[in-house]
């Protein structure tokens, strides 16, 4: 979270704009919260350049719940194609298999999820209801830098993207997307809010067993107020949206993220101690996994990092090594501090 957003939220905690209430105490149908909600919606639509024929839904359950909610809404009891490029798309495939006929169109597991399969090689089904991809894999550190054009591949079906971990870090080509979903807790705000951006023509397709609160048409028809939404998380996300606008918008954030990623990958690639295994053309700008060639130094590296105020660098247990997550709110000075420490550690211990 950006520090100035936290400072603003703290200042408004007990009394939001002279209302005499904290946002936590407001009715979700009261005029005060409705104004917060409407501003957040408008700011997000502007930031992400969401076309008018897409609905923005504020939901709950996180990306993991959407792995079930999407097939309940879009599969229509048919088949769905999945491109598995890491742990999160693998989870999506497994969960969707409970609600539809989930088929593997491509899988980069044989490359240890260090590359992305060429869309031209995907085995897409002629009767698929949609194609699902995770556009940024946090654990393995791979990212789609360009969305696939399914029409050019001869498949005019919706593309569903899980953009949880890099939403608002770069523009979205909505002409290639049918639905995008993501948990807010990486770039948009605190945990509790789930963002769904869905093309209007995809509404109204939910299976009869889909819970009403997860039926996209019901949620859209009720302006995300069918059930009590995560009001404080929406308020916090709204403050982040305003912060993003003050930074210059998504284009400015993309340039900043490119600079941060280039700085860190450059330090890794020019080192004799550190290694990143991901193919350069699909390296994530948000999540940078790296390894020490001498893994006996791992614990010393982490201890020294903590001493330098650099936290949460231990890699996911499924892959090991290290991982630096450099989301929007991380300033380039933070990345520079990590690079300086890495160079110091290599000089003195490597």
What does this structure look like?
It is a single chain. This protein has helices spanning 3-11, 31-48, 62-74, 87-96, 216-221, 231-246, 250-269, 298-307, 332-349; strands at 54-59, 79-84, 101-107, 128-134, 136-137, 142-143, 159-162, 179-183, 194-199, 274-275, 287-292, 322-325. The protein has 350 residues and is an alpha/beta fold. The strands form three sheets. Strands 1-9-8-7-4-2-3 form a seven-stranded mixed sheet. It has a three-stranded antiparallel sheet with strand order 10-11-12, covered by helices on one side. α3 crosses α4 and α7 (250-269) packs parallel to α9 (332-349). The model has no long low-confidence stretch (mean pLDDT 97).
Query: How helical, in percent, are the residues?
Result: 25-40%
The helix-strand sequence is: HHEHEHEEEEEEEHHHEEHEH
Distance between the termini: 33 Å
Roughly what is the average pLDDT, rounded to an integer?
A: 97
The main sheet orders its strands as 1-9-8-7-4-2-3
Biggest pleated-sheet summary: 7 strands, mixed
Low-confidence stretches: none
Bin the strand percentage. 15-25%
């Amino acid at each position: 979270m950006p520090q100035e957003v936290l400072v603003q939220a703290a200042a408004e905690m007990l009394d939001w704009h002279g209302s005499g209430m904290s946002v936590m105490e407001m009715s979700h149908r009261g005029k005060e919260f409705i104004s917060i909600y409407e501003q957040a919606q408008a700011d997000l639509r502007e930031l992400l350049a969401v076309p008018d024929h897409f609905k923005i839904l504020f939901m709950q359950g996180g990306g993991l719940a959407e792995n079930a909610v999407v097939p309940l809404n879009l599969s229509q009891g048919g088949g769905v194609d999945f491109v598995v490029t890491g742990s999160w798309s693998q989870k999506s495939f497994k969960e969707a298999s409970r609600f539809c006929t989930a088929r593997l169109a491509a899988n980069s597991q044989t490359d240890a999820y260090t590359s992305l399969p060429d869309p031209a090689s995907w085995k897409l089904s002629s009767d698929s209801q949609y194609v699902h991809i995770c556009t940024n894999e946090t654990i393995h550190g791979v990212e789609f830098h360009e969305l696939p054009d399914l029409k050019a591949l001869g498949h005019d079906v919706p593309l569903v993207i899980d953009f949880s971990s890099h939403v608002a870090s770069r523009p979205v080509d909505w002409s290639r997307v049918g639905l995008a979903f993501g948990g807010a807790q990486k770039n948009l705000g605190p945990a509790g809010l789930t963002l769904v951006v869905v093309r209007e023509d995809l509404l109204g397709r939910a299976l009869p067993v889909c819970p009403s609160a997860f039926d996209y048409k019901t949620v859209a028809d009720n302006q995300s107020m069918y059930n009590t939404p995560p009001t404080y998380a929406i308020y916090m996300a709204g403050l982040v949206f305003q912060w993003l606008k003050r930074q210059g918008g998504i284009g400015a954030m993309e340039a900043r993220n490119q600079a941060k990623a280039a700085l860190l990958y450059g330090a890794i690639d020019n080192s004799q101690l550190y290694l990143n295994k991901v193919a350069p053309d699909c390296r994530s700008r948000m999540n940078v996994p790296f390894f020490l060639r001498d893994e006996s130094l791992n614990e010393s590296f982490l201890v020294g990092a903590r001493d330098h105020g650099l936290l949460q660098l231990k890699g996911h247990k499924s892959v090991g090594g290290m991982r630096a997550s450099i989301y929007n709110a991380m300033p380039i000075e933070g990345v520079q501090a990590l690079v300086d420490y890495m160079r110091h550690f290599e000089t003195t211990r490597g």
